[in-house]
Amino acid sequence: MAVTKLRSSLERNQLLFTVFASLAAFSCYYCMYAFRRPFAAAGYDGAQLQVAIAGRLIEAKTIFLIAQVLGYCVSKFAGVKFCSELPRARLGGALLACIGVSWLALLGFAVLPVGWKPVALFFNGMPLGVVWGLVVRYLEGRKVSELLLAALSCSYILASGEVKRIGAWLLEKGVAEYWMPFTTGALFVIPFAASVGLLSLLPPPSAEDEMLRARRQVMNRGERLAFAKRFLPGLILLCFFYLFLTAYRDFRDSYQSDLFAEMGIADAAAFSRTERPVAFGVMLLLGLAFLVKGARRGLATVCLLMISGMVVLGASTLMFRAGKIGGETWMMAGGFGAYLTYVPFGSVLFDRIIAATRFSGTAVFAIYLADALGYSGSVGMMLYRDVFAGEASRLEFFRDFSLWLAIGGLPLLLAASVYFLGRAKLAPGS
């Protein structure tokens, strides 16, 4: 009775729906990160696990990270089909199954011999890669999608630092390095399940939503191919840039504790000090994009924000190299710029493209197409740094990578923006 009444209220009251859906999505993906990122807070310096490639030793932590990212990448490729075809009624069950498998894999990471630990992390990453797409399926195609997806995006920026802080705290309390990820996950199992239950209460998009943002429906193989063929030049530009952007974001996320150590920042609270302003700043700007009415104008606004992000990343990196700002300030400013460009790829960019071009389908397909390619670049970048740029410290490598990403990313973003805006059709309010 209470559930039926709540569903009815969510359908009638737009403000209540927006707040409820934002909190449920934020909580769900925030909790997911407790199963993905806490292990990166440890160094694993004593691990008897090394692999030599081209005469260079690959460190144990890099091996662990690559194993998890490979699993994550595989699921992104699978998610192109899985997330775009799964019926809405099965989304909740799929989310719970993903976290259950991932948590069991972290138990394997704790108890298996060191040589098998990368295998455990591979299977930990596999189910987690589709969680984003499943949550987005609840939120896309609505007139308030910018607000909902901004809240969802804020979750992983904030959670990345917070769960590593929890992991570092558990290590300080005496929890063993290999048991720390499983223990962190145990703290979030029940909140995750509760969040999935709340998401399942959300009503489907209304007739007004479909009129303003185009109808969102599952896409079969033929429809996915039709989308790719129709927008191929623009997708190539975006995906090529996103390959390097994802590698950059994942390197920053995975080695943030090492970068802080090289800059002389030993306080675990630094994770929160740098990531909280980034999360809320990005969420605020993407949320304000909701105020821009019209599908084509909305797409232009998102493109402008992404281009601005690369400008901020490049400018802050030049200031850091010149000694005008400190390391923590640079991590905050550079992170804000990078995430202002990165976040729309997984949220409002493709939602706006579909709305502006009036293509009937789901944004999740395009999101996962970009993600699958992006995480392939992440693996390549980790290997490149250890094998071909091993003489440079992680901080030096990351600083140079930041500058080249900004310089190379701007023309690609500009060209992609011109392409998609040129193909936008007149929609209600455009």
Walkthrough of the structure:
This is DUF5690 family protein. With 430 residues, the chain is mainly alpha-helical. The protein is 74% helix and 1% strand. A hairpin with a 2-residue loop joins β1 (51-53) and β2. The longest helix has 29 residues, at 394-422. It is globular, with a radius of gyration of 21 Å. The two termini are 41 Å apart. The mean pLDDT is 84.
Tally of separate helices: 19
- Might you state the CATH topology name? Growth Hormone, Chain: A
First CA to last CA: what distance? Answer: 41 Å
> What is the CATH homologous superfamily assignment?
MFS general substrate transporter like domains
Radius of gyration: 21 Å
Q: In terms of structural class, how would the helical and strand content be classed?
A: mainly alpha
Reading the helices and strands in chain order gives HHEEHHHHHHHHHHHHHHHHH
| Mean pLDDT, all residues | 84
Strand content: under 5%
How many domains? Answer: 1
What's the total count of β strands? 2
Mass-distribution shape: globular
Indicate the CATH architecture.
Up-down Bundle
- CATH class (first level) name: Mainly Alpha
List unreliable stretches of 5+ residues. Answer: none
The largest β sheet comes out as: 2 strands, antiparallel
User: Order of strands side by side in the largest beta sheet?
Assistant: 1-2
- Helical content class: over 70%
Transmembrane segments: 15-35, 91-112, 118-135, 147-166, 178-204, 225-245, 278-295, 302-323, 329-350, 362-383, 403-422
Protein name: DUF5690 family protein
Organism: Luteolibacter arcticus
Pfam families: DUF5690
